[in-house]
Each structure stands twice: as structure tokens, then as C-alpha cells.
Amino acid sequence: MTLRPHHTLALCLALAVPLAAQQTHDAPAIPAPIRNLIVLDPAHGGSDSGAHLTDSLLEKDLTLALAGRLKSTLTAHGFQVITTRDGDTGPTSDQRAELANHARASVCLLLHASNSGSGAYLAASSLTPSDDEHIALPWDTAQSAYVGDSASLLDLASKAFTSARVPAITLRSSVPPIDSLTCPALLLELAPNGRTPVTSADYQQSVADALTAAITAFRDQNDTTLKNAAPIPTPPPTPVKPKVPRPVTPKTPGAAQ
């Protein structure tokens, strides 16, 4: 039997529907954050010294020391800690965010310091929350999927600092790389506490203890509702520096070939 063109088309369409249904697959599951993994980002480093806290102390050195103290405290409470720098290096904001995002941290903390103000300044991102936390978001607004969780962490941190008798002011900020992080994230700027300087070991330990208490409470609060993370955004490409041609050295007459 010879099929007419319109009969052939109808048959193809009839076969295509069940075939398409058979080939439908669920989207691959996105890995959930690692429950006890914390990323610490000591600000500045390398040629970026940050603020001059005293005549002999730079912000980049204090944030690194504070990260070490906080890492020890968190580790003692069962957390695994990754830092974006362990020495006097200066990773870019995008490099810091990329490290944190691929680590699948459950919390990220950005550490800064100042010689002005009083107590601690705690900030979450100022982005508007995303309607769907599972869609791929632009690099510069990836944190919008976590604004709600970051706000909850900010509230817990404020209460922990109050219990530790360390004055804390909460606010919103877009200091890099907070808006590119795919984890609940806070920024801490440590300032002197009255007459107590930021260099005080006891003061730094009180801050480390308060942050650890807040992170522990946040983890326990979210244990039964831990959600899959949003897709990891792609960082913008790093500009490639053009190669400078090497100068040609003229040959000396009579030189060996």
C-alpha cells in the first residue's frame, strides 16, 4: 500500500509522541551543601593590605590571624574549615567565590577589620531573594538564592554576640564576593570594643566563640530541612594579557652561526 504524504506525516507524529515520552529523563540532582563544611575568607592579602589598623598592623594580617583562631574554634566543635588563603596571597574576589562555591560549603564567612567604630558589624547580602533557588543565576547575583538563609544566620549571629556581650550592628552589604556566593553568607567587620583593641586575643576569641555558636545553631536549625543547593554559576572569564613580542637581538658581524 502506498501512503499519501499527509498519511505519512500523521503516522510520524503518532509515533513521535510515545517516543518522546520514553526519552524524558529527570534533571540530575544537584549536590547538597556539606553539612559541617565552613569557608572562611580573610579579606585582602598580597599587594592589597587593606586598612592600616595601627602603625605596624595591616588589616590583611589581622583577618588572617582571626581566620586561624576561628578555624581552630570551629574545628574543635566538629566543623571542617576551608580558607580562601592561608598566607600573604591575594586571590581575586571571583577566585574566592569560585573556591567557596565548588566546596559546597554550608556557611561562608567574610572577615574584615577596622580601626574605627565599636564592636562588630555583621552584614548579609543586600540582594532581593530569588523566586526559585534551583535555577542557574548570574554570577553577580548568585547569593539571591540564599538571602533568606543568610538573614536567618544573621539573626542567630546577632543573638550570639549579644550573649557574648560583644556589641554588634546588623546591616546589608554588597562587598565582594558576597553576592557571588552560593551558600548562606555573612560579612564580619571587627572594630575595637570600647577600649579593647582588635588585636586583643581575648576579644578575638569572644568573637570566634560567638560566630561558632551562631553557625552551630544555624546547622541544627536546618538539619531537618537541608535543601539542595542552586546550580553553581560560572565566573566571568579572566582577561588574557596580550603577549609582548620579545625584542630581536641584532647579530654581531662575524659571530658564529
TrEMBL record:
GO terms for biological process: peptidoglycan catabolic process. The keyword Signal applies. Keywords: Hydrolase, Signal. GO terms for cellular component: outer membrane-bounded periplasmic space. Residues 232-250 have a biased composition (Pro residues). Its EC number is 3.5.1.28. InterPro entries: MurNAc-LAA_cat, N-acetylmuramoyl_amidase_3. It catalyses: Hydrolyzes the link between N-acetylmuramoyl residues and L-amino acid residues in certain cell-wall glycopeptides. Residues 1-21 form the signal peptide. Residues 225-257 are annotated as: Disordered. Residues 38-216 form the MurNAc-LAA domain. One of its GO terms (molecular function) is N-acetylmuramoyl-L-alanine amidase activity. SUPFAM superfamilies: Zn-dependent exopeptidases (SSF53187). PANTHER family: N-ACETYLMURAMOYL-L-ALANINE AMIDASE, N-ACETYLMURAMOYL-L-ALANINE AMIDASE AMIC. This is N-acetylmuramoyl-L-alanine amidase. It comes from Granulicella pectinivorans.
